[in-house]
Write a structure and sequence with these properties.
It is found in: Cytoplasm. The protein is α/β, with parallel strands linked by helices and 763 residues long. It is built from 27 helices and 24 strands.
């Protein structure tokens, strides 16, 4: 729509094109004194892959598929947040009227100073009643929401560092904290619990002051243009420094000579015109320093060590964040940390939405950022995409998808507050970043080809696959320039972004047919593998089981070295995979025999939690014989599989069918299912990697109830790219085959070397 284009945002239906409908439940607007933020909720209809077991009764199933695959329509909830300057308020209202108002809409939620300023205009234009919400309540609700639901929401700013943005680990307990919201003015709020908070101070000198004085000084009316001017200015041409007053550093007070003694101080004596850039920079320093000192004083007064800065004054602008960080550091002597929010400007809009949706209790759900639709944090450099920054500020749009089930920490994490899922921070590691971005670029054509091939009966599959390819390629180029766009850049985030882009263009499970075929083939071999294992002595069987686990993990279509083999050698199977692992003992094996020794010498574990990886040979011939051995020893097993598809990873629904077929062949598995000693659960994830801080709540409950004392994490994505350093309260076994030569070289091994990491927690 023209209204959307005016904001630099495309309407979801026209942008995505492949959702058959978007039904808007309600919408709201937050109008502050300077900027307006539009928040709206939509129900999005898109395609999902479903599997269903065939009724094989009375049939010869030898050549029948294992299960039926169908693509169905599913409706999910999505939150959208857009921002723009108040100049475009009427255009915004046109957008709402054309796209969001339906016959059921009676009230529009509004908060902030503009809720009063534009009340009459809104009601006249839309024919709706304006329901004003308390600004402070909305800000706090919005802040709590992003702190809980966006893992890489918070960052510290580091001046002159290769990694300007240092993202923080989400602490499970977010309280207490100080929120400094810098909009037109400044509000300082102490937040102690979800519902307990108080306004403890503030200032009339804020973003509106910068904008207003900046307009008077430079004749520049646009907020973003003022920030652009400031980024090019030199404040020392305008400000009087300590060394200008004293001729050097003021040693007796420990002051640096470069410290500002008087903002705009030189304008009283200099007989010259100052540049717009220098005046904008001086003004930005003056206001940022004032806010920083004020926030620090309040934090020390209330014994708080976390200060979150929000509001659109910050805008991801380096000078603002640098000055505030310096002020906090200087005045607190390093005891208080200045923290910034990636979605700083939307706190009030999110909070107002939550207030309006209280009857639906949105906080009972978990939400995840949709990387395909969100713009991400824009570059702080004015030279990187300057037109985007001028047009849209920090970001254009944030999209949050409601997840089917609430997500929580794994109860067995040793310290959830220090847990970091990812092994390598690509934002920090330039060499690794360059390699992995290139790796994903080179694989992109193959992924697009696979996506199109997965829907041979669709007339527009090729067209959609090309649009997916272009979208993901553009994301990768953005991340080359702005690796911090969506938080800490990792292999996991690159994989997840790719999955989000595939889903946007209705490719919910490109590997569904591959998994169906490989599951069927592997099931035919299950009994012979079990018979072979049962013929071995105890110790020999343990090593054979481990070798089988590792050999099964070779079958990963997400690894180019493997997919090349599987496509060129169709007969490559379980035994061939075992031969690839002949280097066991010489490759990367970490504490290789510890687990077997523990099993032999100690009593059986009470309950083992196993995070499975791939479909086919991996789960059927690798994982299930291992599960069977644990059950035979008296250990209960929780088998956790992905809730949704990713690459050729086994999903929960596929695991149900596979387990049913195995139980029909094996009395150990059949008995364990009947007696609920083998339990199949979903992880709550649709990623090839694993974040143990965001797992399905039902899984966490089960782990507690069954007193789980062993965790097994399998696969390169789950045990190497993530969780390699994860510390747990119980024994753990992390195992994977390294199917990437660059990664193997980094770890000191060769391709198809193995990781077998058995860890016992310190008492």
């Amino acid at each position: 729509s023209s209204a959307c284009r005016a904001f630099g945002v495309n309407h979801a239906k026209s942008r995505q094109g492949f959702f058959s409908s978007l039904l808007y439940a309600f919408s709201l607007i937050i109008a502050g004194g300077s900027l307006t933020k539009l928040a709206y909720y939509s129900t999005v209809q898109h395609k999902v892959a479903r599997v269903r077991s065939f009724d094989h009764s009375g049939k010869d199933i030898e050549n029948e598929p294992l299960y039926e695959i169908s693509v169905q329509e599913e409706i999910t909830a999505r939150l959208h947040f857009i921002k723009f300057e108040n100049t475009y308020i009427e255009t915004c209202l046109d957008f709402i009227k054309d796209h969001l108002v339906n016959t059921e809409t009676k009230v529009i939620k509004a908060t902030g100073g503009g809720a009063y300023k534009f009340k009459d205009l809104i009601e006249k234009k839309l024919g709706l009643k304006v329901d004003k919400e308390d600004v402070m309540t909305c800000l706090i609700k919005g802040c709590n929401f992003v702190l809980r639901n966006i893992p890489h929401e918070v960052f510290a700013y580091q001046k002159d560092s290769d990694t300007e943005f240092r993202f923080q680990t989400n602490h499970p307990n977010i309280f207490p904290y100080l929120l400094v919201n810098i909009g037109s003015g400044v509000s300082i709020v102490k937040v102690e619990t979800e519902d307990k908070f108080e306004w403890i101070g503030g200032s009339s000198i804020g973003g509106g002051t910068f904008w207003g004085l900046g307009a008077l000084l430079t004749k520049t009316k646009k907020f973003d243009e003022l920030l652009q001017l400031a980024s090019k200015g030199q404040h020392t041409n305008v400000d009087m420094l300590v060394k200008d007053v004293y001729g050097g550093a003021y040693q007796t007070l420990g002051l640096s000579g470069n410290l500002i003694a008087s903002s705009f101080g030189k304008s009283t004596t200099a007989d010259k015109e100052f540049s717009k850039e220098d005046m904008a920079k001086s003004l930005l320093h003056m206001i940022s320093n004032d806010i920083g000192q004020l926030a620090c004083l309040y934090a020390k007064l209330h014994n708080l060590d976390k200060i979150y800065f929000g509001g659109f004054f910050i805008r991801g602008h380096p000078v603002t964040m640098r000055t505030i960080t310096y002020s906090i550091n200087f005045f607190s002597k390093g005891e208080v940390q200045a923290l910034f929010l990636r979605h700083e400007g939307y706190l009030g809009a999110i909070g107002a939405f939550l207030k309006g949706a209280e009857q639906d209790n949105p906080n009972q759900y978990s939400w995840g950022e949709n990387y395909a639709g969100s713009s991400g944090l824009m570059s702080t450099s004015p030279d990187v995409y300057p037109m985007q920054r001028t047009r849209s500020g920090t970001f254009d749009m944030l999209e949050m998808d409601r997840l089917e089930r609430p997500l929580v920490n794994l109860p067995l994490l040793k310290d959830p507050s220090t847990y970091i899922p990812d092994t390598v921070d690509l934002t920090d590691d330039a060499m690794a970043r360059k390699y992995w971005l290139t790796c994903f670029e080179e694989a992109l054509d193959g992924v697009a080809k696979r996506a199109a091939a997965s829907q041979p009966d669709s007339i527009d599959a090729l067209q959609r696959a090309e649009k997916f390819r272009q979208k993901y390629w553009n994301k990768l180029q953005t991340l080359r320039q702005q690796p911090f766009a969506y938080g800490t850049l990792t292999v996991r985030s690159l994989l997840d972004t790719r999955e989000h882009c595939l889903n946007e263009f209705n490719f919910p499970d490109p590997y569904s047919k591959v998994k169906q075929k490989e599951n069927g083939i592997a099931l035919k071999c299950f009994q012979s593998v079990i018979e072979s294992l049962d013929s071995l002595g105890w110790e020999e069987r343990q090593f054979a089981l481990v070798k089988g686990l590792l050999a099964g993990n070779v079958f990963d279509w997400g690894a180019k070295a493997v997919s090349d083999v599987l496509e060129s050698e169709p007969q490559f199977g379980f035994e061939e995979a075992k031969s690839k692992l002949q280097g066991i003992g010489r490759s990367v094996v970490v504490v290789g025999s510890g687990y077997c020794v523990s099993v032999r010498e100690g009593p059986p574990h009470k309950c083992a939690l196993i995070f499975a990886d791939n479909s086919g040979i991996d789960i059927i011939l690798g994982v299930f014989p291992f599960v069977r051995e644990l059950l035979s020893r008296g250990t209960e097993v929780i088998l956790a599989c992905n809730s949704g598809p990713a690459l050729n990873d086994v999903t929960y629904s596929e695991s149900l069918i596979v387990t049913e077929r195995i139980a029909a062949m094996d009395p150990v598995i059949q008995s364990a299912l009947r007696e609920e000693k083998l339990l199949l659960v979903q992880t709550g994830s649709s990623s090839p990697c694993l974040d143990l801080s965001r797992l399905d709540k039902g899984l966490a409950v089960l782990v507690r109830e069954r007193k789980t004392d062993l965790v097994i994490i399998e696969g390169m994505g789950r045990a190497i790219h993530t969780n390699y350093y994860a510390a747990l309260k119980c024994e753990s076994l992390k195992l994977a085959v390294i199917k990437n030569s660059w990664l193997a070289d980094r770890l000191g091994g060769k391709i198809f070397s193995v990781i077998f990491k058995y860890e016992v927690p310190c008492k």
